[in-house]
Design brief:
single chain; alpha+beta; Pnp Oxidase, Chain A; seven-stranded antiparallel beta sheet; globular; DUF2255 family protein; UCP028498
Length: about 120
C-alpha cells in the first residue's frame, strides 16, 4: 500500500478545499466536486456534507476509487470507510479546528455526518 509523503500531507492539510472525483460504475471519473478535507496524523479524511444522500459519497462508496486534487497535489485514491469512534472523535475536532471560522451551519453537518467518514488512501 502506498502512503502519503509528508509534503503531500502538509500541502493538502493547508489547502482550503479538495476536488474529489469518485469513479462512476463504468470506470470514468465524475465531475470534480469541492469538499473539505482534514488531516489526522499521516492520514487524510473527508465527509459528506449531505450525509449518505450525497451523490459523490454514494459514488465513492460504490466504486471505492477516485481522484483528488488539492494544494497542488493530484492523486488517484481508494476510499476506506471509517467506523472507529476514536478516529471519528479526532476528525470531528479537526473539522472544528480547521473550518471553525465558518458559520456553524457549514461545520455542524460535517461533524454530524460521522457515518460518512472516508479515509483517502493514495494509489501508486
Amino acid at each position: 500500500m502506498t502512503t502519503w509523503t509528508n509534503d503531500e500531507l502538509t500541502r493538502i492539510e493547508h489547502a482550503e478545499e479538495l476536488r474529489i472525483s469518485p469513479l462512476r460504475s463504468n470506470g470514468t471519473p465524475r465531475e470534480p466536486l469541492l469538499i473539505w478535507v482534514v488531516r489526522d496524523g499521516d492520514d487524510l479524511y473527508v465527509r459528506s456534507f449531505r450525509g449518505s444522500a450525497g451523490s459523490w459519497y454514494r459514488a465513492a462508496r460504490s466504486s471505492l476509487e477516485g481522484h483528488i486534487r488539492s494544494g497542488g497535489v493530484a492523486k488517484d485514491v481508494t476510499f476506506v470507510g471509517v467506523t472507529d469512534a476514536d478516529v471519528n472523535d479526532r476528525i470531528d475536532a479537526a473539522y472544528r479546528t480547521k473550518y471553525g471560522r465558518y458559520d456553524a451551519s457549514y461545520v455542524d453537518p460535517l461533524v454530524a455526518a460521522r457515518d460518512t467518514t472516508l479515509k483517502l488512501v493514495p494509489v501508486g
